[in-house]
């Protein structure tokens, strides 16, 4: 599937992957910093989000399809290898890409969400925080809960630092359902009982970034990523930042990315 892609700058390529319920625009502060430092940024809208296609049917949103989309983005952009930076669902996809296509990944950075197996084994505190993932499994019910009373539940629960552009996109019922299909395709209820997904160890240098104000992810879900990295591992804990450090701590996140990437040049 051909995704909408923002491709800016020259230099080593950095593939920036957003999560739910965002688009490539979430990375705007980091794109500016990376471009100014001599990096090329490639930031797609994932399947089901933003200006990218939104096929009907849950079956179109499985991780295998999303993984194929990302390989297609790299191929279309003429990029053999890229530094991959993923947030939320983009973090899980960064792990899949680094594990299954190591020849395409120069490094992997996980923001808020790390390796899927680390998430799966993070314990009961993480399961409690993940209650909404079960709610999202119910077609129409989840859509109604999120959108009723002018998206009041979304605003109060998510605490998104810039909710209005997100809500403007999700007012389109097809866009709202498409975004939820990522959860429905990849995190059905029995996934919380089954063994974590098996992926080859990540060979590339990797960094995990977790924020103390994250309402959805525990620290263990990020630090456990180290167990699935065969290359070097770096962990950073951002105080006084929320699930979206791109917006709540843009300068600190940008500085961490540049420090990590510049050390690999």
UniProtKB/TrEMBL annotation:
Keyword Nucleotide-binding: no
Domain AB hydrolase-1: 12-249
Keyword Transit peptide: no
InterPro entries on file: AB_hydrolase_1 (IPR000073), AB_hydrolase_fold (IPR029058), Epox_hydrolase-like (IPR000639)
Pfam families according to UniProt: Abhydrolase_1
Gene Ontology molecular function: hydrolase activity
Keywords of this entry: Hydrolase
PANTHER family linked: EPOXIDE HYDROLASE (PTHR43329)
Protein name listed in UniProt: Pimeloyl-ACP methyl ester carboxylesterase
Organism, scientific name: Thermomonospora umbrina
């Amino acid at each position: 599937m051909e995704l909408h892609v923002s491709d800016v700058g020259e230099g080593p390529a950095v593939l920036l992957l957003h999560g739910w319920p965002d688009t490539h625009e979430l990375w705007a502060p980091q794109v500016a910093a990376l471009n100014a430092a001599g990096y090329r940024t490639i930031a797609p809208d994932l399947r089901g989000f933003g200006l990218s296609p939104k096929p009907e049917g849950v079956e179109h949103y499985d991780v295998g399809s999303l993984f194929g989309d990302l390989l297609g983005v790299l191929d279309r952009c003429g990029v053999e290898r890229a530094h991959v930076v993923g947030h939320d669902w983009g973090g899980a996809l960064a792990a899949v890409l680094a594990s299954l296509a190591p020849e395409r990944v120069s490094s992997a950075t996980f923001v808020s969400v790390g390796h899927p197996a680390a998430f799966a084994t993070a314990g009961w505190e993480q399961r409690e925080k993940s209650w909404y993932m079960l709610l999202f499994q119910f077609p129409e019910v989840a859509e109604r809960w999120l959108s009723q009373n002018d998206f009041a539940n979304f605003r109060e629960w998510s605490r998104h630092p810039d909710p209005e552009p997100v809500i403007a996109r999700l007012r389109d019922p097809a866009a709202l359902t498409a975004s939820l299909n990522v959860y429905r395709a990849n995190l059905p209820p029995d996934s919380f009982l089954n063994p974590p997904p098996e992926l080859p160890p990540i060979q590339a240098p990797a960094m995990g970034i977790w924020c103390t104000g994250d309402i959805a992810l525990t620290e263990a879900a990020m630090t456990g990523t180290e167990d699935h990295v065969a290359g070097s591992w770096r962990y950073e804990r951002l105080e006084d930042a929320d699930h979206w450090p791109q917006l709540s701590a843009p300068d600190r996140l940008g500085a961490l990315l540049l420090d990590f990437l510049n050390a690999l040049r």
